[in-house]
Design brief:
353 residues; Metacaspase; 23 strands; 8-stranded mixed β-sheet
Length: 353
């Protein structure tokens, strides 16, 4: 997706097709339903609710008060019936992705069921629809009151986008974003917001693992260090801190993002049988299951092999080991990436949720 600059007011003109787009108060960007491009609205406004305010969710509901040491928010959006590029669109993989992630977290890593919140665009409960406001509330629920020993997971499977950076805190000149189910009306959620919501509040001893299966998601948490495969075949850290010197780290905790370097092209990689999962989600789950006790370096190497060659053979239980054998590379992922709030030895540190 491409983004253009917009102007404040009750409506803005799409930079690409000149359609008139209504702007709701507080929006920072608006997605055009005609051409799928996004226009920035130059009116940033704080959105995070005060900790003293009950976490009310659109539709009249509330997130549960379950405060286990292991908590997760899993988001999958198919965008069924919505327009993209002037035609109908739907992704099959995202809802399956969150089912597979939930099984992995609950059955493999002991996350309590009531501490794993799922938001999709297929939910009957309006409080569980993957709208922009519900996603924001879910992110706040995930980290609110976090303390030493907390293990938090954020997973998003859907569409991602880029927007020209306006405050100089991006090395490549672009902010990255995730697209809620109502992004045509309410706009995407930019990486600056995601960083403020689930990275900055992490206190000492709390850790966050994020897995984002979307285009343009390589640094969508705005973390200061990025680990990529070098030309000599080793994983190496790159300093990704903003040139402005803006702090993008935590409040003492650790945040890590598994994402992918993508070309934005949509591809389907077929394995025997039906059903669909996303390539990034599939490679992460399969690598974790097939490499128990692996280091982060070994996990990245295994994910890369799975993406490129179908990966190693191992028996998987749960949804991802059932008849799901079609992998949808809707995010165009070519290589896995790891970004983090701090550098560490990926060949020594074991992966632990």
């Amino acid at each position: 997706m491409n983004f253009g600059a917009g102007a404040p007011g009750g409506t803005v003109r799409c930079r690409y097709c000149s359609a008139s787009l209504p702007v709701m108060p507080g929006l920072r960007a608006i997605q055009c339903p005609q051409c799928n491009c996004v226009t920035r609205v130059r009116r940033p406004r704080p959105w995070l609710p005060s900790p003293a305010v009950p976490m009310h969710v659109a539709g009249g509901g509330f997130f549960p008060h379950a405060r286990g040491k292991k908590r997760a928010v899993l988001i999958g959006i198919t965008y069924a019936g919505m327009r993209r590029g002037g035609r109908g669109m739907a992704l099959r993989a995202p809802v399956n992705d969150v089912k597979c992630m939930r099984y992995l977290l609950c059955e493999r890593f002991g996350f309590p069921n009531d501490c794993v919140q799922i938001l999709t665009d297929e939910e009957k409960d309006p409080c569980r629809l993957a709208t922009k406001e519900n996603i924001r509330m879910a992110m706040n629920w995930l980290v609110q009151g976090c303390s030493y020993g907390d293990s938090l997971v954020f997973h998003f499977s859907g569409l991602g986008a880029q927007v020209p950076d306006e405050n100089g805190d991006e090395l490549d000149g672009y902010d990255e974003a995730i697209c809620p189910m109502d992004s045509f009306q309410q706009g995407p959620i930019l990486d600056d917001e995601i960083n403020e919501a689930i990275v900055r509040p992490l206190v000492h001893g709390a850790k966050l693992h994020a897995v984002v299966d979307a285009q343009h998601s390589s640094t969508v948490l705005d973390l200061p260090f990025l680990c990529r495969l070098s030309r000599n075949g080793t994983w190496q850290w790159k300093d990704n801190r903003p040139p402005t010197g803006a702090y993008k780290g935590t409040s003492g905790g650790q945040a890590m993002l598994f994402s992918g370097c993508s070309d934005g092209e949509n591809n389907i990689s077929l394995l025997p049988e039906a059903s669909t999962v996303g390539a990034m989600t599939h490679s992460f789950i399969k690598a974790v299951e097939c490499e128990p006790g692996a280091t982060y370096g070994r996990l990245l190497t295994s994910m890369r092999a799975i993406m490129r060659e179908g990966g190693v053979n191992c028996y998987l239980q749960g949804p991802i080991g059932a008849p799901i054998r079609k992998v949808a590379n809707f995010s165009g992922v070519q290589e896995p990436n790891l970004s983090c709030s701090e550098r560490f030895d990926i060949y020594r540190k074991p992966f632990v949720l």
